[in-house]
Amino acid sequence: MSKFSYRVLLLALLVLITSLFSACSTEPKEPVQVEDDQSILGTFGQIRVFAASEKKGIKAIEAAFKRIQYVEDTMSTSVNDSDVHQINQAAGEASVKVAPETIKVIEAGIKYHQITGGRFNILLGSLIELWGIGKPHQKVPTDVEIDEARKHIDIQQIEITNNKVHLKDSDMLMDLGGIAKGYAVDEAVKVLKDHGVKSGFVNMGGDVYAIGSKPDGSPWYIGVQNPIIGANNSIIRVPLVDRSIVTSGDYERYFVENGERYHHIIDPATGKPSRKQLVSVTILSDKGMDGDALSTAVFVMGLEEGLAFIEAQEGIDAILITKDKEVYVTTGIKDQIEIIDNQFKIAN
């Protein structure tokens, strides 16, 4: 071998070795935090992700919000020509062909009605409209009006055949508001994961899903809001990894008439706002749709029945707060939560 050939070979080996060392010593690129907020689903929506690049993060978030908007346009009672709006318009007269997603959510609503003993009901529209809480016509209806509206909440009056839905009672109104937001969060999480997101969160007005853990491997910490009206602090800190957390409380939407406060969580058994000792129910679950439905149902059940009910559900945990600022926690998360407001005490 000539000296020239030898030098060329040596140089090539040095370049190869240098490249190998460089490849071995290169640290993984830090993920980029990307965030966007939008008014959607009648609330404040926030999505934060950690992505390989800002461009990829923006693309993932845009796709997630687009999916949420689709759910709202398809299932909101207040959107003209939505599936639910059309179902209500045709009540007692005709079946309406709807999207497969709408069928899925309606069937889930029927399931939750069954397992909660009727405490969760997607056919409370007549009562919700009668009370009008949060709307210009809100008022305390008469007992006669309430009794009449309660005649039109029978879940058996839903008929589903071949992607068509029919409400057999012409005075019946479907309202998926107690479940569709959780479904929208679940769908947004699917979209983000399909875009390669492994860390982040979706927050739709308190319906939160934590995707994976933080980039440093630690869990996301989500606060449970103080249920005292006028307070704006968190009272409990909960660690989350690939889990949903949803809270329902009597402080969220209400009005006051003749010195008495009336909140938006209606008890189907009475047709009136639930008057149990609870002021807040937080559900932790693998799916936001579960948390949405069960937080409402448990609030209506009350403390003892609600706590026992959740303890019997696999993969579901709960935090129940009473008017006396007592906190009751299911056994699955009792050792994980942290009280950060000493006005509240764990009672069990």
Counting helices, strands and paired strands, the structural category is: alpha+beta
Straight-line N-to-C gap: 85 Å
CATH class designation of the domain at 219-346: Alpha Beta
Low-confidence stretches: 1-27
Question: Helix amount, in percent?
Answer: 25-40%
Proportion of β residues? 25-35%
Overall pLDDT score: 91
Spatial strand arrangement across the major sheet: 1-2-6-7-10-15-16-17-19
| Helix-strand string | HEEHHEHHHEEHEEEEEEEEEEHHEEEE
CATH hierarchy: architecture of the domain at 219-346: Roll
Largest sheet at a glance? Answer: 9 strands, mixed
Number of continuous helical runs? 9
CATH superfamily grouping of the domain at 219-346: ApbE-like domains
The overall strand count is: 19
CATH fold assignment of the domain at 219-346: T-fold
List keywords for this structure.
single chain; 348 residues; alpha+beta; 3-stranded antiparallel β-sheet; 9 helices; 35% helix; transferase
Secondary-structure map with pairings?
Blueprint: H1 3-25, E1 32-40, E2 43-51, H2 54-75, H3 83-89, E3 96-97, H4 100-115, H5 125-131, H6 143-150, E4 158-161, E5 164-167, H7 180-194, E6 200-204, E7 207-211, E8 220-225, E9 234-240, E10 243-249, E11 254-257, E12 260-263, E13 266-267, E14 272-273, E15 278-285, H8 288-301, H9 303-311, E16 317-322, E17 326-329, E18 338-339, E19 345-346
Parallel strand pairs: 17-19
Antiparallel strand pairs: 1-2, 2-6, 3-5, 4-5, 6-7, 7-10, 8-9, 9-18, 10-15, 11-12, 13-14, 15-16, 16-17
Would you write up a description of this structure?
The protein is an alpha+beta fold and 348 residues long. The protein has a domain at 219-346: T-fold (Roll). It has nine helices and 19 strands. It has helices spanning 3-25, 54-75, 83-89, 100-115, 125-131, 143-150, 180-194, 288-301, 303-311; strands at residues 32-40, 43-51, 96-97, 158-161, 164-167, 200-204, 207-211, 220-225, 234-240, 243-249, 254-257, 260-263, 266-267, 272-273, 278-285, 317-322, 326-329, 338-339, 345-346. Strands 1-2-6-7-10-15-16-17-19 form a nine-stranded mixed sheet. A hairpin with a 2-residue loop joins strand 4 and strand 5. Helix 2 packs antiparallel against helix 7 (180-194) and helix 8 runs antiparallel to helix 9. The protein is globular. The protein starts with a helix and ends with a strand. Mean pLDDT is 91; it is low at 1-27. Its EC number is 2.7.1.180. It catalyses: L-threonyl-[protein] + FAD = FMN-L-threonyl-[protein] + AMP + H(+). Residues 1-23 form the signal peptide. Mg(2+) binds at residues 178, 292, 296. Flavin transferase that catalyzes the transfer of the FMN moiety of FAD and its covalent binding to the hydroxyl group of a threonine residue in a target flavoprotein.
